[in-house]
């Protein structure tokens, strides 16, 4: 019995390597299958993690944008409480890229009560005024437009002048002030209320440079606008007071009556001419 046990042990030791070699293809196939399966699973998990990371990144950017927008709106509303007039919040839809025409398109129109000549402000001061209105949008001309002029006054002493735009990136120009005018660098300019478009006291800008060219009757005065014309996205449209509404309606009715009278007069003249013939 011991002899057969010893022989069987010896035989098993001899056969074992053969068994290992014989089973290697199956084991290798199973190992390779598990390896590639694990690799594919890891790849899918990696793709899923990358997608989740990208989604979270986008969500974070949106949250940051919303936070910045909320900050801007708080600043905007913080400025509006100092106004006695009613205001309408609007948003910029597009900006005119023409360097000689400083205009923007707003997402408010006739249906929202927007009208031609309506003052446009941001959280810091006057941006411009509405020049064209459709049912759902409007176009506003900025202070820096070369064709824009705004009656202003120096807040320190009430001295009146007109601020003229000079194009993109250029300071405003204060017009028609003689060399001995009481003007200083750092003086704050506000709307004077003359012209009937802007109420008195809206911030316009600050004088940053004064030059006295020889041979010219007026000083060369540069103004930095108070409004952030290049970065503001939300704006305030100043709504008319009840008095202004009544005056505007009266003017409109008067214009309609004048057109009606002119049309009636033309028809009467045509009828008279036909009768004479």
TrEMBL record:
Domain Rod shape-determining protein MreC beta-barrel core: 94-238
Regions that span the bilayer: none
Keywords attached to this entry: Cell shape
GO BP: regulation of cell shape
GO cellular component, one term: plasma membrane
Region listing for Disordered, in residue ranges: 242-277
Annotated Pfam families: MreC (PF04085)
Biased segments, Acidic residues type: 249-261
Family statement: Belongs to the MreC family.
UniProt-recorded name of the protein: Cell shape-determining protein MreC
